[in-house]
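Teaching note: in complex prediction, the entire set of molecules is handled at once rather than each chain in isolation. The prompt given to students was simply: 'Predict the structure of this complex.' The entities are:
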Amino acid sequence: MTITNHPLPEAAFTELAEGGGGPATMRRLGDAQRSKHLMLLHAVAEAATGPETGPAAFRAGYTQLARIQDTAPGAAAWLLGLPHLGGWLHDTLIRLDQGTAADFGHFACLVAAAAIRAGLPVNLDVPVQDGRVRLPGLGSLLVASGKSWVRLRGDGKRVTVGDEFAAEARLLGPDDGTRAGPAGWSGTPAIRAAGGGLTWTVLLETGDPYLDRYTLQMRTAMSAGEVADWRERVRSAWQIVAGRHRWAAEPMADVISVIVPLTPRSDTDLISATTPAAYGAIATSWPPDEVTLAETLVHEFQHVKLCGLLDMVPLASSGDQRVYAPWRQDPRPAGGLLQGVYAHLGIARFWQAQQHAETDPDGQLRAQVLFARWRPAIGETVQTLLETGSLTPAGVRFAERLRAQGQQLMSAPVPAGAAQIAAEVSLDHRLTWQLRHVAADTAGVAGLADAYQRGKPCPGGARIWLREDVRKVDSGLRSRLLNLRYLEPTRYRALRADGVLPLSEADRLLLERNSEAAVQAYRSRITGSADPQPDAWIGLALALRQLPPWLASRADPLSLASWFT
Amino acid sequence: MTSQEKDIETAIPDLRDIPVNRLAELGSSALAHSIALYRERLRENGIPLSSFQARI
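The expected output is the structure of the full assembly:
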C-alpha cells in the first residue's frame, strides 16, 4: 500500500494568500486536517500498548473507529474533523514525548460520541472524569457512583452507562436551548445562527479539558442566563458577518464548529485566540458588542485558515529574530508576524465594509479609523517580514500576494479626520514600541550628543539592537485615551468631562488638540528634567504631528529632529 | 498546464481512504516520516498560539 501527500493546487494557495478561500479550498484544508488527525492517531496507537485500562480502552475505540469508517464514513469524518480530537491528540503526543501519563482512555469517549451521534452500536469502557463521562461534541453525562470507569453500551437507539444511566441515543446531543435533555445529561450548548440566508451552527464549548488550552482559562460552569447571553450575541454577530462580510461568512460556516469562551483577567480586556491543535475552534472572552464579536470571528477565522495551510505548506522557518508588529506590544518572531498580518488583512477588509454599514456617527468613526489604521499595516508588515529572511520560497510568494491585497485597500477613500486619528495612534504605537524595546550603543549615543552640542553635522545613528523592555515608557493612560477616542467615543467624552484622569498638562493639551501649547509643555518637561522622559518625547512627536507644517517647522525642538534626519 | 493548475507539494499524507486498522501496514513509509517531522516540530516549537489582546 502506498500513499501520496495531499495535493494543494496553486490556485487554492493563491486564494488563501489573498485572504480568501472558497468552498473547494476549505474542503481541501478540512481533508488535510482529517488526514493529520489520522496520522497523529496512528502515532498514539503505536504507544497505546500494555494491559492497563487506558491503553485497552484506546485499542477498543480504535477498532470501533475502523468499523465506523467502514459502515458510516460520514460519522468517521465528523469525528476526525472535531477540534476536540485535535486538542486531545496534541496533548497526548506531548505527554508521550515528555514521558508523562497519557490519557489514552479519552479516545473511547470520542469514538462513543461519534457512534451515538450516528445511531451506531457501541460497546466501550469509558473513563469518568470529575463525576462525568464526556462525549466530545455532544455533552457529558453524570455518573454518581464514584466509579472511575464505566461500560457504555448502545444499540443505535438506546444508550446505557453501567447500571446508572439509560436514555434514547437521539436525546444525547448538544443543547440548542429548545428542550431539556434526559436526567443526568448536559448537552454542550449549541447556537444556531441565521443571517443573510446563511445558517451557522456552532458549539459553545465549556467543558472539554482538551479545548481548555488557551492563554486564558475556558469559561466553565456557565449559568443558563450566561449561555442565553452568548447565544444572543453570537446570533447578532452572525447577522453582521453573514449580511455584510459574505467572503468570510460562507467558509466560516463550513469550518468553525466550536467557540471556546474565555475568562478575561479584567472587564476591559478582550482576548481571542486560535491554535493549530484545534482546527475549527475559535476562543474569545465575552465581547462587548456584536460588531466587536463579528470582527473577532473574521480575525480568528483568518488564523484558522492559515493554521490549516501551514500544516500543509511551511511558509516561515523558526528563527530567533524578533521584529515590530503594529498590533502587539512585544517584539514578534516571523511566524507570529505572518499570522498577525494575515489576520489584519481580514480585519482591514471587515472595517472597510463596516464603515458603510454603520449608521450612527460613533460607529462610523470607529470603522473608518480602524480601516485607516490597519490597511497600511499590511504592506509595511509584509516588508518587515520579507526583510527577516525567514520566509520559505512559498512564504515569499504568499507574502507578495498578501501585500498586493493591502495595496488594493489603499486606494479606497477615508475621511481626513479618521485618517488623522489612525496615523496618530499608529505613530504612538510605533514610537512606544521603539522606546520600550530598542537599546542603543552608549558610546554611539555619546558621540551623537557631542556632535550636536558642538554644532557638527549628524554623524549617523548609534548602533541599535532589540532588547525587550529595555526602558519603561509611562504613557499607558495617554495611549488608551488616544484609542478610546474612536473605539468608545461616548466613554471617552465622559472620562474627559469628569476631569479626574491623572493626565499631565502636556497630555491634556495634546488630547484637546491644543497642539502648539502641547509642544511647549512637552518641551518644558524634557528640558526641565534630568531623566530621559521617553513618554514626553513620544508626546512631543505626536503634538508636532498635529501642527500645520508651517508652524511645526518654526518650532524650536524640530531643529534637533531635523538634525537627526 | 498553467502555474495556477499546478499542485504544491504538501507535508500531510493523504490518508482519507485508509482505515485506521490498516495504517500500521504502511510501516516505515512516508507516513512514519511525516509523523516524525510533525513530532519534531512539536518538540521544537511547542504548539503556537495566536493570541490577541485588545483593551477596550
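Point out the following to students. Chain B touches chain A at residues 3-16, 18-26, 29-31, 34-35, 38-39, 42-45, 47-56 (CB under 8 Å). Chain B has a mean pLDDT of 81.
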